[in-house]
Amino acid sequence: MKWTVKPSRLSGTIAIPPSKSHSIRALLIAALANGTSTIRKPLLTGDGKSALSATLNLGADVTYEGETCVVKGVGNDFSRIKPHFDMGNSGTGTNLFTAAVALGNKEVTFDGDNSLRSRPFRQVIEALGPLGLRYAFKRQDGDLPYTICGPVKGGTTTVNGVSSQFLSALLLSCPLIKDTSTTVNVVNLHEHPYVELTLWWLKKQNIRIEYESDMSKFVIPGFQNYTPFDLQIPADFSSATFAAVGAAIAGDSLSITGLDFSDPQGDKGVFDIIEQSGARQEITSTFVRSSNNILTGKVIDLNKMPDALPALSVLACCSEGETRFVNVAQARIKETDRISVMYRELSKMGADIQELPDGLIIRHSNLKGTEVCGHDDHRVVMALALAGMIADGETVITTAEAADVTYPSFVKDFCSIGANITVS
User: Which pTM was predicted?
Assistant: First the structure.
C-alpha cells in the first residue's frame, strides 16, 4: 500500500485510539486471571490482534460485545496452551506472552513475520533460563523462531533492560510462579516509564512486589494470582504524538481529545517537549488544544520515550537551529533501526540530518516531496506522513499498511482534520 501526501493544514478535533501497551497487558492479565474480565475499547488490530490470538492460544475464552472484549481466564490451568504462537509483528506481545507460557509445562514455539524475526528476544528467554526454562533457538542468524518449555520456578536471575519489555515480561509472570519468591536483578535499564506502566497494572491487581528505587532489583513473592477486572483502555499517548507534532508544525488550531494525563504512559512527556520547543498548547482534563508557532531546536534525551523519535524528527526539521536527540540507542532495536531509517528517509526529502550512535542531529530543513519507504514500521510511516504535510510537492510513502499495527484509522482521522492523504 502507498500513501500519497500533499501539503496540508490541520484544524478541528481528533480523538486518539486506544493504547497498545495497555491493551496487551490487559489481555495478558485477563488471560491469566481466575474468572471473567471485561476490557472496554481495547486495541484489537495489529499488535492488539496478535495479543488477542496469544490470549486464545493460552487457553482463555474470549467473546465480544460491541467494543467490549470479555475474557474468561485460565487461572492456574495451563493444559490448553496451543503448541504454536504466531505473534505477527508484535515485539511487546512476544516478550510478555513468552514469560506467561513459561508458567506451564507445554512445549511451545513462537514465531512472527520477517520484521519480528529481525528483533531480539534472547534477553528475556535467557533471563528465564536460571528459573528452569528449557529453550532452543531454531536459527543461527536470529532469535525467532524459538521453542520453550516450562514450568519456571522461583530463584534468582538477571535481565538486560535494554528493552523494558524484557523486564516487564518477568514482572508480569513471576508473581504466578508456584514457589516462594523470585529475585530479578536488572542491568542496563532503559524506558523506565514502560516498567512503571507494568507496575501500575500489578498495583491494580494487588500484586506484592519489592524493588529498589532505581529498579535495579526486584523481589517477587510467588503463589500470587490475578483477579478479574473491568476497565476501559486509555487513549494511546504514543499515537497522540503524531497529532501533537502535526498541530505544532502544520496546525491552525487542533484539539486532541481522549487523553488522560494521570495515566502512567511515559509518552505523555512528548507534550512537554513540544511545548518547550515553542508550540502553543492548552492542556485541560478533557483535551489538548494546540497550534503551530516558531519552534526552536534543543538537546532532547529520549531514553524514556524512544517511540517518539520518528515523529519528533519531523518536528526538528521545522525547528530553528539544531536539535539533538540523545541517549536513545534502543530505538535501533524496534520494528526497524529507527535512527538509521529516519536518517535515510528524511535525507531523501532534503533534511539536514546526521546519524549518531545513540540518536540524531537535525537542523532546520525545508523538506521536498519524494518517494520514501516506511520500512514496514508503523511509527516511521506515520512520521513520514507528517513530513509530507510540510514538504513542497508530493510525498509517496510505501509499506503504509504498517500503520494498522497501532493506528488503523490514521488516514481517516487525519483527513478529517485537513490532511491531504490518498491511498493506493
Answer: 0.93
